[in-house]
Specification:
The protein has 18 helices and no strands. By secondary structure, the protein is mostly helical. The protein has a single domain, classed as Hydantoin permease (Orthogonal Bundle), CATH 1.10.4160. Helix 3 packs across helix 4, helix 3 packs parallel to helix 11 and helix 3 crosses helix 18. It starts with 16 loop residues before the first helix and ends with a helix. Bound molecules: 4-fluoro-L-phenylalanine. It comes from Natranaerovirga pectinivora. This is NSS family neurotransmitter:Na+ symporter.
């Protein structure tokens, strides 16, 4: 019986192991791989970024992913309940709510990026952004995004409509919990991967592509001295793997108790990083082409924030050889890819929050889903104003870098020291073909938290310099 005296239902379950893996990959692979990762690589030293990125993956991404999936499976509950059960004096529930609060901030802006995508998809039918320039389209005529803080007035209707569509899509995908999610991810995982492969082939066969690839893979070593590059790499890994948001805990809580945690986690991490790396070829190949047609060197394109996928890439599409039809097709495919990539990440965030609330308060899941969709939509409206881009940048920078890293430190301390990393490892090793050695405990207890802590201190010092 639950605390209201009703009969406790048995927990929802993924219909199979592969559906869980697909759903987790769906959450991990999203705008972060195709929009955020190449942008971060561009801003943080091209090929040099790949080094901190890989180090962040091994020292923090993979150990934490395994930890969160192991916790979710073990306690069969969303993050707040799982962390409450994990501490001896049950005092760590806050460590479950913190990631969920972070998720909420993220989903509000993630959905506005989905809304931009809806708008671009619609306008790709006429290549509307070629009428002036793609920058005018984005910042001026149509989406009217500006990055000045004062301009909160005026909701932009196209953005609001895109936001409504996004939230309806999210609600539809998770309205019946794990069951409906399972059906959606069968489409939203393979389809964008196929589209990405088409875009990579197109990009690599464009004139000038090789210069872009050289830019992508040639390290600017001096950038490694910059602490922001390292903070960005860790932030990107967490964002990309969807760890430290309580999502993987929630998803794993629907796994049977004898599931294989390490193998599943490694598949998810590998798929996610591979797709980011591959997406880099599509983006940088295209930048190389743009360099040739526009005469502006890649390094001087000064692409910041959202500019890459929403300004520079559309501009390149408008110059593809083969005429208008080809350009329309590639524009449509690109934005369809972004949309289908992003949707299962967006709904995973909502599902993570809903699972946390339902497990803690015993609320009705359907009503909680509907309520969350409404609240998330309302919160996202701030990003649909003229100052949307300004707020997005602030939230993205602080929430993803400083805040996430701090959550990581606390999770490591609580799980590694208070619960015991060794105990958790023995538990997940029992059901796995892939046995992890004591190096994992060493990571969770020392390497991950200390590197994250050091990083945050340096990041703070740098921010206030
Ligand atoms: N991992 C997703 C991406 O790379 O696009 C984004 C994301 C999903 C971030 C879920 C956070 C999250 F909780």
């Amino acid at each position: 019986k639950n605390f209201l005296g009703g009969v406790k239902m048995s927990r929802e379950r993924w219909s199979s192991r592969s559906i869980f893996i697909l759903a987790a990959i769906g959450s991990a692979v999203g705008l972060g791989n195709t929009w955020r990762f190449p942008g971060q690589a561009y801003q943080n030293g091209g090929g040099a970024f790949l080094i901190p990125y890989f180090i962040a993956l091994v020292t923090a991404g993979i150990p934490l992913l395994i930890m969160e999936i192991a916790i979710g499976k073990k306690f069969q509950a969303g993050a707040p309940t799982a962390f409450r059960k994990l501490g001896k004096k049950k005092g760590f529930e806050w460590l479950g709510w913190w990631p969920l609060a972070t998720s909420f901030a993220i989903v509000a802006y993630y959905c506005i990026v989905m809304s931009w995508t809806f708008n671009y998809l619609w306008h790709s039918l006429t290549l509307a952004w070629t009428k002036s320039s793609s920058a005018d389209f984005f910042y001026g005529d149509v989406l009217r995004l500006s990055d000045s803080p004062g301009n909160l007035g005026g909701l932009n209707m196209p953005l609001v409509i895109g936001l409504v569509l996004t939230w309806i899509f999210i609600w539809f995908s998770i309205r019946n919990g794990v069951k409906s999610m399972g059906k959606i991810v069968k489409w939203t995982v393979p389809l964008p991967i196929i589209l990405l492969i088409i875009l990579v082939i197109r990009a690599l066969t464009l004139p000038g592509a090789i210069d872009g690839i050289n830019y992508y893979l040639t390290p600017q070593w001096d950038r490694l001295k910059d602490i922001n590059v390292w903070a960005a790499a860790y932030g990107q890994i967490f964002f990309s793997l969807s760890v430290l948001f309580g999502i993987m805990v929630a998803y794993a809580s629907f796994l049977p108790k004898d599931s294989d945690v390490p193998t599943n986690s490694m598949i998810i991490a590998f798929a996610d990083c591979l797709l980011s790396f591959v997406a880099g070829f599509a983006v940088f190949g295209t930048l190389g082409f743009l360099q040739q047609t526009s005469g502006t060197a890649i390094a001087d394109m000064s692409i910041t924030g959202p500019g890459l996928a929403f300004v520079t890439y559309p501009e390149a599409i408008a110059q593809l050889p083969g005429g208008l039809w080809i350009q329309v097709v590639f524009a449509f495919l690109f934005f369809l890819m972004l949309l289908t990539l992003g949707i299962d990440s967006a709904f995973s965030i909502v599902e993570g929050i809903v699972t946390g609330l339902v497990d803690k308060f015993g609320w009705d899941k359907k009503k909680t889903v509907a309520g969350m969709c409404f609240v998330g939509f309302a919160a996202g409206l701030i990003f649909a104003t003229n100052a949307g881009l300004y707020w997005l940048d602030i939230v993205d920078n602080w929430v993803n870098n400083f805040n996430l890293i701090l959550i990581g430190v606390f999770e490591c301390v609580v799980v590694g020291w208070i619960y015991s990393a060794k105990k958790l490892r023995n538990e997940f090793n029992e059901d796995s073909n892939m046995k992890f050695g004591p190096w994992w405990d060493f990571m969770i207890k020392y390497v991950t938290p200390l590197s994250l802590l050091g990083l945050n201190i340096l990041f703070l010092i740098d921010s206030f310099k």
